[in-house]
Specification:
Blueprint: H1 42-51, E1 57-61, E2 64-65, H2 70-80, E3 84-85, H3 87-90, E4 97-100, H4 117-131, E5 137-139, H5 143-152, E6 155-161, H6 172-180, E7 182-186, H7 211-223, E8 226-228, H8 234-243, E9 249-253, H9 267-275, E10 279-282, H10 291-305, E11 310-312, H11 321-332, H12 338-341, H13 352-365, H14 370-388
């Protein structure tokens, strides 16, 4: 169905009364910055419409609204436990499926610091309940659901978590998460856990994957849950690719070799992912000034590992992303790298609506052929998911 989305008007938690059943908040609009559309000729615009009639899939976004006033309302909004999926805004894109990373480490309904089992399962199940009340968006449980979403003009939401920290030492929790609808999970999120070394936890040496981590990867392979090495250490990522019997993903990454330095991912990790048959999603959020710089990373990774192993995972959201990071860094007492905060917004990619309108347009405007565009917009991920799920 391409961009012909069948949005039914449902708003998050419409089955309840905001202010009576739960506390309501003023939520962010689609964007606080001047939106930008990649300019096209009429012929190019028609080609975009034709190409986006095939599957369009985001490998990594946060498909919901944050509070309009992040500084004042962020933590109260989180603790209320009802995150609002941006159904109406997403319907303005050509997305058929989105890997929704939810709140992850911000999930703190029951704890102060997130990544606890009760926090993650609360959010997963609450979001799933809300999806069950929408006719437009629905919880994605397999590849057939993505094809159905395209055919019916709907949106398949893939519920994901970016770290396995909350499984602690319990392999069976992988099956529980799968039963709730989680179809993708990261190994670590910067901080080390029982599975391996986090990307932000390396001091003198990189400890890599643990024995328990190897068993967890085996269980994820067995149940059919996609594995992501985003935010894992380089050795943990390489070990994961070595251990996994199924394709591995990095759902959102930038390249060291394209100018990100230590904040980016090394070539050898991208190559190891490709060797598994996996896919790398390109990240944009807060680190880059504009879509042109983003696409320099895209082309670098394509040249490195081939067009068959690259997709897009912008990692954007509805709300002021840079302000969100400022608030979080202050709350946790962290000093963020200059590159994280140097851009107030990413011109052309500031939220999922803008990103998924402009990515196909940029590819057409810059001369990529139809086969290449179909692969990176969704075909590559579908090919890998056919093996994983």
């Amino acid at each position: 169905m391409g961009a012909d989305k069948q949005f039914d008007g449902y708003q998050p938690y419409d089955y309840l009364d905001a202010g009576e059943d739960y506390r309501g908040f003023e939520l962010a609009e689609k964007t606080a910055f001047e939106p930008r559309a990649i300019e096209l000729t009429d012929e190019q615009a028609a080609r975009v419409d034709e190409l986006t009639d095939d599957v369009v899939l985001s490998l990594h976004d946060h498909a919901f609204q944050f509070p309009a006033d992040i500084d004042a309302d962020l933590f109260d909004y989180i603790r209320e436990g009802r995150i609002h999926t941006a159904y109406e805004f997403l319907a303005e894109t050509s997305l058929d499926a989105v890997f929704d990373m939810q709140l992850d480490g911000l999930s703190s309904v029951h704890s102060l610091h997130g990544w606890k089992w009760d926090d993650i399962t609360h959010e997963v199940s609450m979001r799933a309940c809300d999806l069950m009340h929408s006719d437009y968006a629905f919880q994605c449980r397999g590849v057939d659901d993505i094809h159905r979403a395209r055919e019916e003009g709907k949106l398949a939401v893939v519920q994901c978590v970016e770290s396995a920290a909350m499984i602690e030492n319990e392999l069976d929790r992988i099956e529980q998460l799968y039963g709730m609808g989680v179809r993708s999970m990261g190994i670590t999120y910067n901080t080390s856990n029982a599975l391996g070394t986090g990307g932000g936890d390396i001091r003198e040496r990189d400890g890599g994957l643990t024995g328990f981590g190897a068993r967890a990867i085996g269980r994820m392979n067995d149940v059919g849950m996609a594995i992501s090495v985003s935010h894992a250490s380089p050795q943990t990522s390489l070990d994961t690719c070595d251990v996994s019997e199924k394709p591995v993903f990095d759902t959102h990454a930038l390249a060291q070799g394209a100018g990100m330095g230590a904040r980016g991912t090394a070539d050898e990790v991208f190559e190891a992912i490709a060797d598994t048959g996996g896919v790398v999603g390109l990240l944009s959020s807060t680190h880059l000034p504009d879509i042109e710089t983003y696409m320099e990373h895209f082309q670098y990774v394509v040249d490195l590992i081939g067009i068959d192993h690259v997709a897009f995972g912008p990692d954007v959201l509805y709300g002021d992303h840079t302000e969100l990071l400022r608030v979080l860094s202050s709350y946790h007492g962290m000093e963020l790298p200059d590159s994280t905060l140097e851009s107030e917004y990413v011109d052309g990619l500031e939220n999922p609506t803008e990103a998924w309108q402009n990515i196909p347009r940029w590819l057409v405007a810059n001369g990529y052929d139809d086969d290449e565009i179909r692969k990176v917009l969704g075909g590559n991920v579908l090919r890998a998911l056919d093996q994983v799920w």
